[in-house]
Amino acid sequence: MPRLLALVGAGVTLIGVAFLLVLAAQYGMFGPLARTLSAAALAIVLVGLAFLVRARDPKNVGAPILAATGVAAGYLSVVTATVIYAWLPPILGVVLAALIGLGGMVLARLWSNQWVALISVLGSLVLAAYIGSAEPVVTAGLMLV
After folding, report:
1. Number of H helices, E strands in the chain
2. Are 13 and 69 in contact (CB under 8 A)?
3. What are the backbone angles phi and psi of residue 87, rounded to the nearest 5°?
4. pTM of the entire structure?
């Protein structure tokens, strides 16, 4: 039961990040830079909290879910900066997305936890298609990474 609640929490958080990045833009809330930086900051906070929770209790099911959610949020902020706002050239966006994804996979391997890998990749892929629908070619490149 705790794992299910953690998974639901991760899904809700990632949907919230997607709404922050897309819907807030459509309704003119916050500026583009504030939205993108807040998603990136949330990613860093979530991964940091995951390490804190894991240090206190290595068997806590919330730590890997927090880390995976943070990795996916970081990936989505790169997709937004690359596809929606074109602040990053596509090749740099792909490299950053690859580094974030690789970090998630390394963390999953270090913690021997497939949930980190599954949620970070699956959450990133599903929501990247939603966020980057305006530029399907660049978004597909980011999703392939």
Report:
1. 7, 0
2. yes
3. -75, -25
4. 0.79
CA gap 110, 143 in Å, rounded: 24
What is the per-residue DSSP string for 39-70?
HHHHHHHHHHHHHHHHHH-TT-THHHHHHHHH
Q: Which two tokens stand for residue 68?
A: 């995976």
Q: State the number of CA atoms in the 13 A half-sphere of 42 facing the CB.
A: 23
| Token pair 């892929």 in the structure block, residue | 125
Report yes or no: 111 and 54 within 8 Å, Cβ to Cβ. Answer: yes
Token digits for 57? 């209790």
Highest mean pLDDT range out of 11-15, 72-76, 115-119, 133-137? 72-76
Gap between the Cα atoms of 56 and 34, Å rounded? 32
Counting Cα atoms < 13 Å in the Cβ hemisphere of 72 gives 31
